[in-house]
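Predict both folds.
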Amino acid sequence: MTQESEPMTPTDADPKGLIRESYNIEGITAAECRSIFLDWALSVPVDADPKERILFLLGHYGVAQPDHPMGQVMREGLEAPLSRGRRGGRAARVPRDV
């Protein structure tokens, strides 16, 4: 991301232009938007705040097209992930030696 004194730009928030292009695709489906969003999310740098970027992109693209499926996908991306705790793994399946 940019330095604190510099405002975020669309290129900062979406370097590959994935979100921008999704808004330009006529008839794109929610499933296609989820796939694009996942690719976008995987490209967000580890030290960046994805929620900050999502909010910026919603403000930048979502205002003009509020009913676009990518807007809904990004709003879902703002929700906190479900806390599921430990799911298991080998230690949960293999009995311990006594």
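Second protein follows, with its predicted structure tokens after the sequence.
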Amino acid sequence: MELTEFNALQGIFPIRRLYQTKESRTFVFISICAASDSGGMEFKMSDYRWLKKYSCYDKDYEKNRGKYKHKFTPLSIEEVIRQEKRLGDKFPAELREFYIQIGFGILGVNNDDFLNLVMSPSDVVDFVLGEGMFENNYCRQDVNLQTKMVFFDTGDSVYLCLDLEKKDVEGKCPVVYSSGIEYVYMAESLEEFLRKMDESPNYYDDLW
């Protein structure tokens, strides 16, 4: 079977590629194992399929609330790209993949101690730009927005960041709490952070 390649995402290194068979006009998606950050570096994509069972729309969640340990809302890649245009850059690689594969939402829906919200792309961009509900948020003053990207709301105006300065060769950034006077290391990558949160939604409380 001969395949003709089409770039699935114009202007962006493809997460998947679209092919058309020569024998018929059937289109198929074939996944690839690499993507690119905004600097053109190729890296192995993170695999969040183990969280896919918790990604659903509100209607299904309300009907089957008991089966959900976490609750994420799916996102379209168009929405991710729309927010990247507002930002003027791509989201960090792991976060971008999480948005595309899973969405955004709450880790530990039965946790009464912390909110534990993986922020939506629009909220992340609003925080960076100081728009929407973050227009007058004093927490923005405590974060170096040139080197840190807030992505996680623990509740009570405490946010966790990806440390962009310490991105490794695979495009992974440590998860940290960072303010003007304090720096707390949480995990070496977003994937490690999510796995730790899956095991114990309050694990980071012991790191302060």
